[in-house]
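Quarterly update, task 2.4: LLP-bound model.
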Amino acid sequence: MPHPAALPLDPDPTFAELIAVRPHLSMHAMDGLLMEGVPLNAVADAVGTPAWVLSAGSIRGRLRALQLALAEAALPARVHYAVKANDHLAVLRLVAERGAGADVVSGGELRRALLGGITADRIVFSGVGKAEWELRLALEAGVGQINVESAEELAMLSEIAHAMGRTARVALRINPDVDAGTHAKITTGRADNKFGIAYGSAAALYAHAAALPGIEPVGLALHIGSQILSMAPFRAAYARVAELVRGLRAAGLPVHTVDCGGGLGIGYRDEPAASPAAFAGAIRATLGGMDLQLAVEPGRWLVGTAGLLLASAVLVKTTGARRFVVLDAAMNDLLRPAMYDAWHGIVPVSAADAARPVAPCDVVGPVCESGDTFARGRALPPLGHNARLAILDAGAYGSVMSSTYNARPLAAEVMVDGDRWSVIRARQPLEALWAGETIPDWLA
Ligand code: LLP
């Protein structure tokens, strides 16, 4: 671990650099950090901190860019937004408005997607362990496709669908055994991961599926991991699936669709984000011209950069050589740094703070764990009590992964659109933390 006073070899991007590559953010000399046309100070004054703030314009713009890139590559592909990245109903409404479908992984996400206005025929149900009630719910709702991940699940689905008098449109999720080159905790397409059906047994299972009651095999699916910045693993995985499609068709089995999964990475620090055009190019090079209906399932790329976590400094303390900025936000709010050692940009909300000379400090939360650390040795100006900071790129896998650990209520959520903004989830009242609990009589 570098000494805090040591000069970093690869200096972090400056506040101005972080803001410059995030078009929905800007620094105003008087109003401080703005999201679209809204001063974040005004949001914090009204709802307090910690608070999640999401840019509707950014989400819309990125969905449009992805849809355009797929269309320009002449790919018949629909975007199925991966609901797990941010499952707020307002986000789902935004993507529904632009004709996107959803990729869901639980009965709860399925209900959310429907409530958000995404029609059942545009919903794909993925996941390695769907419970019987979830499969039943999916069939009742009439979801467009169920991505099956094992022979065991296929048998269970056949039985349930047959008993309900329904036919499940099924894609087999293949494990292509490709290393996505991402963090070990979010890689999913290697043979030793729990996900998908082994490449070698997929063809036989597809043929078996075609003979099962209540099952109509329509195609294949894959998802090799998350926060992938290089196109090479996508190309390798899609090439393997294309080969499988050709083999199945040669054996007389119809294959109509391939679900290419998600995984497109974003630039958290200064790494170049995955480009939708390059992604579309990788799909076109491997699966284009095969008369396939295609789907992609991005989560992070659509909503990650759109959101930030607004926090205040509770205090700044110095112990030995280290300076700690203790925030009112913590790992229970944004888990990514603790869980994946993820780097998130941290920018002062006040323009005056952002202009002061910086010195390295550790940015931490108040939770009683050393892992409750947002950044170490981060260059920040001196911060007064209640100085506000924005933790960037928290729109994906942010609020959805929050917990109430240390009896900390779930933070408020706000959506910004141009000059207007609304609270889209009120801060959880403390009483809600124990509202569902009962003390047994026998303890009275
Ligand atoms: N489709 C499937 C089947 C998935 O499992 C996932 C993500 C996606 C699509 C969307 O992937 P994306 O485009 O967002 O990379 N909590 C972690 C990320 C976990 C991703 C799990 N699966 C993080 O904060 O980095």
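Highlight for this quarter: Residues 56-301 form a domain with the TIM Barrel fold (CATH 3.20.20.10).
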